[in-house]
Design brief:
The chain has 13 helices and 12 strands. The chain is α/β, with parallel strands linked by helices. It folds into 2 domains: about 240 residues, Type I PLP-dependent aspartate aminotransferase-like (Major domain) (Aspartate Aminotransferase, domain 2); about 120 residues, Aspartate Aminotransferase, domain 1 (Alpha-Beta Complex). The chain has a 7-stranded mixed β-sheet, with helices on both faces. It has a 3-stranded antiparallel β-sheet with strand order 10-11-12. It has a two-stranded antiparallel sheet with strand order 6-7. The radius of gyration is 21 Å and the shape is globular. It starts with a helix and ends with a helix.
Length: about 375
Amino acid sequence: MVNLVSQYEKIQAEVDQKILEVVRSSQYINGPEVKLFTEELSRFLDVKHVIPCANGTDALQIAMMALGLKPGDEVITASFTYIATVEVIGLLGLVPVLVEVDPDTFNLDVNAFEAAITEKTRAVVPVHLYGQCANMEEVLRIARKHDLKVIEDAAQAVNANYTFSNGDLVKAGCMGDVGTTSFFPSKNLGCYGDGGAIFTNNDELAISIRQIANHGQTVRYHHDNIGVNSRLDSLQAAVLRIKLEHLNDYTAARQFAAKYYDEAFKNETALLIPKRDPKSSHVFHQYTLRTRGVDRNEMQIFLAAKNIPSMIYYPIPVHRQKAYMDERYDAVDFSNTDALCESVISLPMQTELSEDQLEYIVNTVKEFLNK
């Protein structure tokens, strides 16, 4: 699905040199590479504060802790997402409230979001799934109307742009009270291990986030809040600094591959190509098709036999997971989500896909559809 070896080979000299410099400096934790990366990413995203941490799940947890959410508070998010979005809500003793998604964009259904708000609701987590922003103009409007905090899960959408009705263009993760991302190796901006970050334009919130991520301390051995130990190490920061310089090119390569797929499949009645929200650019963390009238699982087996990987993101929605089942949920409220879980399939999407590879993938998919 993602050829990290080929990507590394193109930047091998830069990466090897930088890693060697970090090793020779022996400044592995909170070294200068971390500070430089956060400054550079802050400028790239045009956000005031970037606070690095150990992974994207920690980023979500720290963000919720810094916002002062208390056990029993309700947090709304989509059921069609990776489990990390929801598990941190449960870990903190908060109450996850799962809602439906839009069948075309795969993102939070804003009408379902507003309908789920109660007197206990304190926050919403819009997930920018597959690389395209949720309907943030409406999410923010509804959140302000009900005095809710907005925590963006931008783990799959770094470098996506959202355009508001007034013409303002803002990067994914930088629109709400706080945004989070992951630098897992397969992400659009990925390191060579685990890593994550939190974004905010709120100065006071940034202080709290930094404090919580560092054992609840600002001054060493003075622990003002309960915190965690969550850091991005210097080696990963060094790699991310190099890859950040290439991120626009990486995004363009993914968009080229997506356009190739689009053109190939746009007239296939058995497939629905990803719909683009006109307010959001799409950075294609995944290229996800919906199947119609064909066996999606059989298609995956056929592709695998031809040495083409594919993935199902996600086969089981959160509201059907044993840990999160709740009698409040009615199946009719998740008809879109359930249909997507039964029909989506993601094709290879990476920065190093050649036209020959794309042609082979496309022809193989069509071979399956016509057999």
